[in-house]
Design brief:
It contains 14 helices and eleven strands. The protein is of the alpha+beta class and 367 residues long. The longest helix is centred in the middle third of the chain and has 21 residues.
């Protein structure tokens, strides 16, 4: 196999099986270990495998990564969402992270570089959304490649105003309401909130910790670098979402929380360097949420320039050779100062997506 290529997906055996997918559901509970365990257990099994569970008590949010064949993963997502809406009461939920419901955001990522596989993912996600709206009685917004309304393609648009704005959005009529499920803000909907579902590309979630307790500083930097906002900002980075918040669990320090929507176009090291330049205080380092493709760490290790143009498919996203290069991964971890919250590089090497897929035997062991 050529360097940097993913395992072969064009052979007959692969063509006959369902596409390999990743899902990264976000749940609005990060404090109660019993609820988190129940949701995680519901997501695991029958062909779907939970690869990582990342909980944050301050955000009161848990991000679960699972993977497997497409039908197995969508079935697992339904089970996990059912467990969440039964266990989480949004009327009493609080936390630093914006959210609209108990099973807040449920993205699906196609890991097969094939348009037929992608189309199958979009169809399966539409079917799942219908079940969630009908069987669970949860309002559903569809986003990214699953969006039914162009204006709702972006996640921030779907979650505009957060849970606290849902009642008003329902009252305003269909223009700002959900795509599927209940169209009235009943007591049941008040308890579950809404969910945002969709098929999207791989992204990387990184929070950058500032040695400060000034939340306005973090918010100001986030406003300066995020891609959406007023034009003419010299530090705006393409394909980047960013917010500023306080993490009491980190001695009250603030973070610039980011999503890199295309980590080749805007690299993690580019985001770190920009925040460092804008911050009058020390940037302690990055915190990884969930898993990361090896290429993100490899790019940081090599200090590679951003590619400039968005690549729409995944052929260049998964790099199984880089995932096996311990030295390269450790250099990337050091470059991004991921160790400011955990000193063991093995913690982060175990959170490389390609390694997790191989460990779970979801891709061939050989190159």
């Amino acid at each position: 196999m050529a360097a940097g290529a993913s395992p072969p997906v064009g052979d007959t055996a692969v063509q006959q099986r369902a596409p390999l997918v990743e899902a990264v559901p976000n749940f609005s509970e990060g404090r109660d270990p019993r609820v988190i365990a129940a949701i995680s257990e519901a997501l695991d099994g029958d062909g779907a495998q939970v690869l990582h569970v990342d909980r944050n008590p301050d955000a009161n949010r848990t991000v679960v990564t699972l993977a497997g064949p497409l039908p197995a993963v969508t079935s697992a997502l339904f089970r996990g969402m059912a467990a969440a809406v039964q266990s989480i009461d949004m009327r009493r939920q609080d936390g630093a992270h914006i959210r609209v419901g108990s099973a807040d955001v449920v993205p699906l990522v196609c890991l097969e570089p094939d348009e037929l596989a992608l189309s199958a993912c979009v169809r399966e996600m539409a079917a799942l959304a219908g079940r969630v709206g009908t069987d669970l009685g949860v309002p559903v917004f569809l986003y990214e490649k699953s969006a039914l309304r162009p204006a709702f393609r972006s996640l921030p648009r779907c979650r505009r105003g957060g849970y606290e704005a849902l009642a008003q959005r329902f009252a305003s009529g269909g223009a700002d309401g959900p795509d599927l499920g209940p169209d009235e803000f009943t007591e049941s909907v008040a308890q579950t909130g809404a969910s945002v579902l969709g098929v999207r590309e791989l992204l990387v979630a990184l929070n950058f910790t500032l040695d400060s307790r000034d939340e306005e500083l973090a918010r100001g930097i986030a406003s300066a670098i995020r891609s959406v906002g007023p034009k003419g900002r010299p530090d705006r980075l393409p394909g980047l979402r960013a917010v500023g918040w306080t993490m009491p669990g980190y001695s009250g320090r603030v973070q610039v929380s980011t999503n890199l929507l295309d980590f080749r176009r805007t690299t993690a090291e580019q985001v770190l360097d920009t925040i460092t330049r804008l911050s009058p205080v020390e940037v302690l380092g990055a915190e990884l949420i969930g898993l990361t493709p090896a290429q993100m760490l490899a790019s940081a290790a090599r200090d590679e320039p951003a590619s400039g143009a968005r690549e729409e498919r995944l052929e260049q996203c998964l790099d199984f050779d880089a995932a096996e290069d311990d030295g390269l991964l450790e250099a990337g971890i050091a470059r991004l100062r991921l160790g400011h919250l955990s000193t063991d590089p093995e913690d982060f090497k175990a959170r490389v997506l390609e390694r997790c897929l191989r460990s779970a035997r979801l891709v061939p062991a050989e190159r």
